[in-house]
Each structure stands twice: as structure tokens, then as C-alpha cells.
Prior knowledge:
Distance between the termini: 7 Å
Mean pLDDT: 96
Oligomer: single chain
Helix content: 40-55%
Amino acid sequence: MHRPKMILIDVDGTLVDSVPDLAFCVDAMMERLDRPPYGEAVVRNWVGNGVERLVRRALIGQLDGEPDEADFQHALPIFVELYRENTSGRSYLYPGIRAGLDYLQDAGYPLGCVTNKAAQFTEPLLRDLGVRDYFDIVISGDTLPRKKPDPLPLLHAAKHFGVAPDTALMVGDSVSDVKAARAAGFAIVCMSYGYNHGIDIRTADPDAVIDSLTELRGLLEKAS
Length: 224
């Protein structure tokens, strides 16, 4: 891996464990719909592709498939209302995140954030957890016409910073992050602990897998 001229970092499953809030909102939504709740352990395996996909999965109780569209259109506003009020109350930064960001900032790496979470949730979450100011640009799931795994958000960030894609690094946790990075021509490092529907992210063949953002320092200092 070459030393990057820009680093982009994902939010859910990479910087933040947001499942406690998401699971709370899923279960509250289900109760409003007179359906049984699932609990955090079940919802954890459904997170990672945006709010709409999460709601669809909750309605059918599984990872793949589609609910009745009328049910979805009824349920989505309920979830959005709940999540708007419960975006960061239970979520937390993973261990090593602040120390890792401090290192990257002090080392002079331009930092951006690229997530599939909608901006109305992303910005408050990053601010409430005290990490928004690390990032020169935040690209949310509704910032552009397409989101990850499409390469557009990554290429948009590269253009913003004025760097070539092959000199940029994406840090994420999911197959979606790996696909986006490969399509954009970025290097990709994944966290071992993130949201990948129970599948080891190593099977997606990222350039490296780390257990803490603090471990990125060692990779970068070894990079040419």
C-alpha cells in the first residue's frame, strides 16, 4: 500500500457503533405497528445499507427480500421520526477512534467522511460524539445521486481534495466499502469489528484488516 494523500472514513461500523440506537428505533417502530420487537442482537445483522434497507429488513424479519410496499411506506416515516429523536443517545465511538483520528490529523492527512447514512442523521451523530471537526468534507447517503457501493461518493471526495484516486485510501467495514473503493481505484483498509451481516470482512479481500483505528498508524508508516 502506498502512503495516501487523502483518507476517507466510513461512519457506522467503522467510527461509531450505532446499533444500540438503530435497534431501539426498530423495536419502537415494530411496537407501533403492533408487531413483536427483535432485540439488538438480531438488528445488528441487518445494519449497514442505510435506513430504508433496515426498515425493509425489519418488516420481513430477514436480510434479503422485500416487504409489502404499502407496509414499507407506512413504516418508514415512523422509523425516521424515532431515529431523528434517537440518533446518538445510545451510540458510541469504538475504542481507539479518537486516538486514531488525532494521529491522522496531527500527521497532516486530509480527512473526509463517506457514509450511506442520510445527512439529517450523520451530521448530528458526528457532532454529538465530538468528531465532526476532524473532517473537511462529509458525504452522506443523500449528498449525491448515488451512494456506496457506487464509486461516486469517493470520486467526489477525491476531486474535492484535488488528489488522484490511486493516491487515496478508504477506511470502512463492509463489502459495500470494499466494492466502492475498488471501483474508484482507492486502497481499502477494513475494520474487523464492523457491520458485514455476520461475514468476516476478510472474505472481501481488502488491502488490510485492522482491529483498531490506532493500528492504521503502523500501516501508514510502513507504506512507501
